[in-house]
Amino acid sequence: MSRYEAVIGLEVHVELKTETKLFCGCSTEFGKEPNTQVCPVCLGLPGATGVLNKKAVELAVKAGLALNCEIGTNTWFDRKNYYYPDLPKGFQISQVFRPIAYKGYLDLELNGKSKRINITRAHLEEDPGKLTHAGGSIITSHCSYVDYNRSGIPLVEIVSEPEIRSGEEAKAYLEKLKAILEYAGVSDVKMEQGSLRCDANVSVRPVGSTVLGTKTEIKNMNSFRAVQRAIDYEVERQIEALMDGGRIIQETRAWDENLGVTVAMRSKENPDYRCFMEHELAPIELKTEWIEDVRATIPELPDARRKRLVEEHGLPVYDAGVITSSLDLAEFFDAALKEYPDAKTVSNWVMGELLRLLNARNLELSEAKITPGGLASLLKLIEKGAISNKMGKEVFEVMFEEGKDPDQIVKEKGLSQISDESQLNRIIAEVIAKNPKSVADFQSGKEKAIGFLVGQVMKATRGQANPGVVNAILREKLAE
Amino acid sequence: MKISEKEVEQLAFLSRLDLQGEEPADWTKSLNAVLDYLELLNKLDTSAVEPAAHVLPLKNIFREDRPQQSLDKELVLANAPEEEEGSFVVPRIV
């Protein structure tokens, strides 16, 4: 198997965060009744001509700059002609010849190593309508339903160079791309709402070869994990086919999430889109000053933020990478850190408890009830010794679910830690009396025996004793 | 002949045009005349000429990102050959 290497390029479609469509004033809001956000322009009715949304141009330039691209100062739109019911005009308005952004890159951190993936281009185009196939699958259905609410929504299509070598790298690329676009504020990048979609071009070739093998295009992947699995499957399928003396057919294949396989959809030998300039829309001429104005609106991006967390707050690179992978998480961390300035402790709770609960409940951070200030208050309670670390986790879970104040939860649950020495003295005396062997062991130099005695005190107080205080009192008494 | 009668018929089929009698042959003839003319234009050396993205001296025609009223749903579906629960219904695609 190692005689072959995978050559993978990704095409990512990202919906731009505009109020209205690319060429008309119809709303882009998600989840509305079919065909209620359409007009003659986005329905492609004869004679209707659109006017370009300025905000979409601005966001596309912003996306390009955030991805280290050069910006085309003289660009225009083209028509990509094909017949399909999701495209009522018979052509898609896209940028074929002069993309608004090109020659960019992003850097991945993979297993401690950095890898640069070059970006060929990022161009503006309109989204087609949405097809739903009766009976579930395009192959078995007798008819399809078309909703044109999505028709004309502004997209940037971001095309990578075929420099990705595995499913894992593809996933890392997508995570990075998503984070950058999210930070830059150009898109909601929600795969489940279709505001980020990814197709993968996959081929394999003998290691050392510089010629590209025949590629297949994989579609229908609905999560980053699905992209990784689909690519890994497809790479292996192609290698096996070649090793069995077969050949790869250039085709579009669909990922089947349930079966974990890619299935041939249609052959795509030589798609001829007969592209030509969209002569009904005026060309776009961007001034350098205007491009620089847009650049000035780009906030701190994930790489810079990660670096700041490492250099200014001493966080481990791994922690900083996890925390900055999503803007929400990074903002939460910064806000908590402001009120509880111990970066590593805050990071442990964010990466441990917060991410654990978000993953377990399959929630977005915005859906959790805990606030950064709440976490800071909780950490102060633990630091004071009012509750133990373990109790803290219990309180955290209630805060996560209900958003209450940690003091209130501690009171309601009767969780407060016993640090009161007179109360502990009584319990410790009992434990010493009941465990003469462990006491003798400790006094004869077996250091480990103290752990057992502390454990007995914890048990007697149902975990509410402050272990540090217990340890200190025990040592004092046993030394007598 | 740059385009065959068979290709014209396929194009008509894709465009849902119903060509009858002499029409496929007539259209093949006139489309080929257009293509011949373009062939003549192709002979010009334009390597030093910037492509004309627009025939008028226009650029940067923008609108602000402000929502406008969409079409009434009944009007939207008025021309649909078939409709179901607000969606256009089209025959099996592949």
Automatic annotation (TrEMBL), chain A:
Span of domain Asn/Gln amidotransferase: 331-478
One GO term (biological process): translation
MF terms from GO for this chain are: asparaginyl-tRNA synthase (glutamine-hydrolyzing) activity; ATP binding; glutaminyl-tRNA synthase (glutamine-hydrolyzing) activity; transferase activity
- Describe the reaction catalysed, as an equation: L-glutamyl-tRNA(Gln) + L-glutamine + ATP + H2O = L-glutaminyl-tRNA(Gln) + L-glutamate + ADP + phosphate + H(+); L-aspartyl-tRNA(Asn) + L-glutamine + ATP + H2O = L-asparaginyl-tRNA(Asn) + L-glutamate + ADP + phosphate + 2 H(+)
Q: Does the keyword Ligase apply?
A: yes
Q: Where are the transmembrane segments?
A: none
What EC number(s) does this enzyme carry?
Answer: 6.3.5.7
Query: What job does the chain carry out?
Result: Allows the formation of correctly charged Asn-tRNA(Asn) or Gln-tRNA(Gln) through the transamidation of misacylated Asp-tRNA(Asn) or Glu-tRNA(Gln) in organisms which lack either or both of asparaginyl-tRNA or glutaminyl-tRNA synthetases. The reaction takes place in the presence of glutamine and ATP through an activated phospho-Asp-tRNA(Asn) or phospho-Glu-tRNA(Gln).
UniProt family annotation: Belongs to the GatB/GatE family. GatB subfamily.
Cited NCBIfam families: gatB, PRK05477.1-2, PRK05477.1-4
Name of this chain's protein = Glutamyl-tRNA(Gln) amidotransferase (Subunit B)
Source organism of this protein record? anaerobic digester metagenome
